[in-house]
């Protein structure tokens, strides 16, 4: 499977709103494998479809479930603020900066 096919599957999966909750995925791989580029491209395509993606780097999220939950909530709230202000660009850096705000 090439990168374009992986990106397409990612966008399709995260656009699916038929499940019991928001669709979620975990992307893992070694540094330099292209995870960030893949997620940035998919986020831009999702934003164009009206889907608000929320990204969280678990290496920076802390070790406990409370820390992870707080970071995820902050990332979601920040992305929602950006979307409401018309400033959501669909890239990971806008999500991370919104989460820090």
Summarize the main sheet. none
According to DSSP, the number of beta strands is: 0
Q: How large is the share of residues in beta strands? A: under 5%
Average pLDDT score: 75
Low-confidence stretches: 94-99
Helix/strand order: HHHH
**SSE-based structural type:** mainly alpha
Q: From the alpha carbons, calculate the radius of gyration and give it in angstroms.
A: 13 Å
| Estimated helix fraction | 55-70%
**Outline type:** globular
Query: How many H/I helices?
Result: 4
How far from one another are the termini? 38 Å
Report on this model:
The protein has 101 residues and is mostly helical. It has helices at 3-15, 35-48, 65-84, 92-100.
Main attributes of the structure:
101 residues, mainly alpha, 4 helices, 55% helix, globular, disordered C terminus
């Amino acid at each position: 499977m090439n990168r374009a096919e992986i990106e397409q599957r990612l966008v399709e999966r995260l656009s699916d709103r038929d499940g019991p909750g928001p669709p979620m995925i975990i992307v893992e791989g070694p540094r330099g494998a292209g995870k960030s580029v893949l997620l940035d491209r998919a986020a831009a395509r999702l934003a164009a479809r009206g889907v608000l993606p929320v990204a969280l780097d678990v290496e920076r999220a802390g070790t406990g479930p409370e820390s992870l939950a707080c970071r995820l909530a902050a990332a979601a709230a920040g992305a929602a603020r950006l979307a409401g202000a018309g400033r959501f660009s669909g890239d990971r850096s806008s999500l991370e900066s919104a989460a820090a705000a």
